[in-house]
Write a structure and sequence with these properties.
By secondary structure, the chain is of the alpha+beta class. It contains eight helices and 18 strands. The mean pLDDT is 93. The chain binds the ligand C=C(O[C@@H]1C=C(C(=O)O)C=C[C@H]1O)C(=O)O. Residues 111-364 form the Chorismate-utilising enzyme C-terminal domain.
């Protein structure tokens, strides 16, 4: 990447100015895009449906709450490509005053307690109508003096086939609580436009990435991905989406892991007036919540002791120049003053093995951890 150093410095300068911004790269693209919004350019719709007529960049939590508001960055400065982005005059941007935030210490579960929770979850699945639940956990990692701009660029280099983002939403001195600083590299499309078509993807089932590309999938993964596909088709039915095209299931590699993925495509005109309602209905899918959804959501709220905040929410451009590119916020972390908090989870079914599920959450975190370590060890 040319201008790498300048670009990393530019990102660090934006952060030092407390500018609200979203920086992202679409999977397979080496062209980052940025949207810098003034504080008054942040909107907080209280419901997902209210996104219907809006345009900008969405940062949506798993559940909307005071601690995790839904945020829409309105298009202020919007640039594409490193050279274009570097034309933004950082010095001319207003230095935003921010409130000092003292976040609650994260709840870090021990391996022993996590394994116990997974046993409990499997037990519940075996004795009830609950078929699949996603159980997640937090993984802390010490910050040193590394540049966040460099970590972002390292992540981008390591996971070119993911949606790689950095979002900064500092709490304004007078405003409401904001998201803070988040980074991630997610492989999971929630809703993406492509010319006159829209696509959503059913992504689930995890195994380690293989150098030989010779994947075979077991019943557990096939079943857990099928729950997501079935759910997507239920939502299609409710929105009268027909006909549609499916592609897959195929293997999708991302970072150190691989998943099963099916693409569903349909004509965008089907959702001309109610795209926001469709997203509100689709989210959260059984890829991050479970099946059946209401039962799984209730179970998660009891078993998980941490707040998911923006993990397993969704993120991306929303009707920005007419394009939608929403991704599920996975393989992500929150940057806190002294540490990174990584979020990682996995789908539990009656066939789950607790020790394997623990390992899966570790494996999913390795992409982010190796990007941070690569910069810390330079
Ligand atoms: C929940 C996560 O990932 C989701 C769960 C998967 C699984 O259970 O196999 C696979 C892909 C994602 O849909 C995560 O990365 O934290």
């Amino acid at each position: 990447m040319t201008n790498r150093k300048d670009f990393a410095l530019f990102i660090d300068n934006l952060l030092a100015k407390n500018c609200p911004f979203a920086l992202w790269s679409m999977p397979g693209s080496h062209t980052p895009e940025i949207l810098v919004a003034p504080q008054e350019g942040l909107i907080h719709p209280d419901q997902l449906e209210k996104l219907n007529g809006q345009e900008g960049f969405v940062f949506a939590p798993y559940n909307i709450s005071e601690n995790a508001p839904l945020v829409l960055l309105k298009p202020g400065i919007h640039k594409k490509g490193i050279d274009e982005i570097l034309t933004i005059d950082c010095e001319a941007l207003q230095h935003e005053k921010v409130e000092e935030v003292h976040p609650e210490p994260p709840f870090i579960i021990s391996k022993k307690d996590y394994l116990k929770d997974i046993e409990t979850t499997i037990g519940k699945i075996k004795e009830s109508k609950l078929a699949k639940v996603i159980v997640s956990r937090l993984i802390p990692f010490q910050r040193k003096s590394e540049s966040i701009g460099e970590v972002y660029l390292q992540l981008l280099e390591q996971t070119p086939n993911a949606f790689v983002y950095l979002v900064n939403l500092p709490s304004a001195a007078t405003g409401q609580t904001q998201a803070g600083l988040w980074m991630g590299a997610t492989p999971e499309v929630l809703l993406k436009s492509d010319d006159k078509m829209l696509e959503t993807v059913s992504l689930a089932g995890t195994q380690s990435r293989r150098d030989d590309g010779d994947y075979s999938w077991h019943t557990k993964e096939i079943e857990e991905q099928a729950f997501v596909s079935r759910y997507i088709l239920d939502v299609f039915y409710r929105f009268n989406i027909h006909p549609y095209i499916t592609e897959g299931p195929d293997t999708l590699e991302s970072g150190q892991v691989a998943h099963l993925s099916t693409i569903f495509r349909f004509a965008a005109k089907k959702l001309d007036c109610n795209l926001g309602d469709f997203v509100a209905e689709l989210h959260p899918t059984p890829a991050v919540c479970g099946y059946p959804k209401p039962k799984a959501a209730r179970f998660i709220s009891k078993i998980e002791k941490h707040d998911r905040r923006y993990y397993s929410g969704y993120i991306g451009p929303w009707r920005l120049n007419g394009d939608v590119g929403l991704f599920v916020n996975l393989r992500c972390l929150e940057v806190r003053p002294e540490q990174y908090i990584l979020y990682s989870g996995g789908g539990i079914t009656s066939r789950s093995v607790p020790e394997d599920e623990w390992e899966e959450t570790n494996k999913k975190a390795t992409t982010l951890l190796s990007a941070i370590e690569a910069v810390q060890n330079r």
